[in-house]
């Protein structure tokens, strides 16, 4: 009996999609963290400027 | 970065930020590497999804091989950098090494998550199960939990010196789990998990090849995927480290500002 290649494309798509989502979340985490630090730095600078005036 | 450099020009306490104002060439190198990593991702995906042939036995699910194995390689590189950071901290007691260690764990953990998830997705059509009590699979899950605990336990220690010392020792010891995961199908004969990279000396039945040695397209795709995931790990750690440096600088400024108020 001749063996046939199984059809399991959906699992490949699922795996690659999951990997993409995890990596996208990792990059989003870095972007959001950078934004929060920048906002805090700007706030602190404003507070210090106000104090000097 | 531009914001931080602009802020560092201020005549105020922000002048202390000189330690997070990096040389321009380093920023350019990071930017260049980030662009290369992003663009080469499409090359890697093209090779994995179209260039490499479809496995006759496993079908398209075998293409998960290029993500599953290489994300483990990228995660291992990240965790090895944790060891370097931890060891350097214990020798120098310089907080920058502790920041490198935590940054690499935060990047290594998602890469190992990719490895776990793609492995489980691949197992479903091939082993007919998402998960089974296999020594390799369980060791991988334990390794993931060990590094997740690293982040949790760090957050539970208030004193920065104590936290850094604890994390350094923990990060060095935890790397044993990465080595164990790599070795386990090579030394135990009761695992379903195949050995594709390198020989399986004590467990020949675990040897799997996917024609890596006979089909140059599979070997080339694997090489590109391995390089990409390791490069992605390094670039992400570099970005994460810069954020950690900025956060530490900001923390110092906050403390100084608050002491002035007092």
Automatic annotation (TrEMBL), chain B:
Q: What sequence ranges are listed for the domain Cytochrome c assembly protein?
A: 35-188
Q: How does it sit in the membrane?
A: Multi-pass membrane protein
List membrane-spanning regions: 29-52, 72-92, 104-123, 135-153, 165-184, 218-238
Asked if Hydrolase is a keyword of the record, the answer is no
Q: Where in the cell is it found?
A: Membrane
The molecular function GO annotations come to: heme binding; heme transmembrane transporter activity
Which superkingdom does the taxonomy of this entry point to? Bacteria
Entry keyword Membrane: yes
BP GO terms, sorted: cytochrome complex assembly
Give the GO cellular component terms, alphabetically. Answer: plasma membrane
Query: Which Pfam families does this chain map to?
Result: Cytochrom_C_asm (PF01578)
- The main location class comes to membrane
Q: Keyword annotations for this protein?
A: Cytochrome c-type biogenesis, Membrane, Transmembrane, Transmembrane helix
Task: Tell me the protein family, please.
Answer: Belongs to the CcmC/CycZ/HelC family.
Protein name (record): Heme exporter protein C
Q: Which organism is it from?
A: Candidatus Thermofonsia Clade 1 bacterium
